[in-house]
Write a structure and sequence with these properties.
The structure is a single chain. With 114 residues, this protein is α+β, with helices and mostly antiparallel strands. The chain has one domain (6-106): 2-Layer Sandwich (HIT family, subunit A). It has helices at residues 6-11, 59-75, 90-93; strands spanning 19-22, 26-30, 38-44, 83-86, 102-106. The structure holds guanosine-5'-monophosphate and zinc ion (ZN). Zinc ion (ZN) is lined by residues 2, 5, 7-8, 47, 99.
Length: 114
């Protein structure tokens, strides 16, 4: 746990959030400023600041984030209509909270990005 980290505080119950899923590796909760009807964040329990810090030992964790997003997309009813997962890295990538997380967005037609 990083004492100064917002998402560590949410993961550890120090700050409230609308939690939709948790297991031994990850916690998922609704984004406080949703950009789509469904906007969930999927966060590892372990503090990792940026994607740049990932290494070979984290392969399973990243796979688990993606499979959790897939499962939550089904639960949220957006698996057939479609959804997007995003992970931002550092300033120009749009990262604002420095504890890695996956965004799951859906429930409307999303703007084409690339
Ligand atoms: P980033 O820009 O780092 O990829 O995403 C950070 C996300 O965290 C943003 O979409 C922002 O709305 C969300 N966020 C920031 N503070 C809070 C908070 O206190 N609670 C929740 N649930 N989401 C937050
Ligand atoms: Zn953290």
């Amino acid at each position: 746990m990083n004492e100064d980290c917002l998402f560590c505080k949410i993961v550890n119950g120090g700050i409230p959030a609308d939690i939709v899923y948790e297991d031994d590796l990850v916690v998922s909760f609704r984004d406080i400023s949703p950009q789509a009807p469904v906007h969930l964040l999927i966060v590892p329990r372990r503090h990792i600041s940026v994607l740049n810090e990932l290494n070979e030992e984290d392969k399973m964790l990243i796979g688990h984030l993606a499979l959790t997003a897939q499962k939550l997309a089904v639960e949220q009813g957006i698996d057939e209509s479609g959804y997007r997962i995003i992970m931002n890295c550092n300033a120009e990538g749009g990262q604002t909270v420095y504890h890695i997380h996956m965004h799951l967005l859906g429930g409307k037609q999303l703007a084409h990005l690339c």
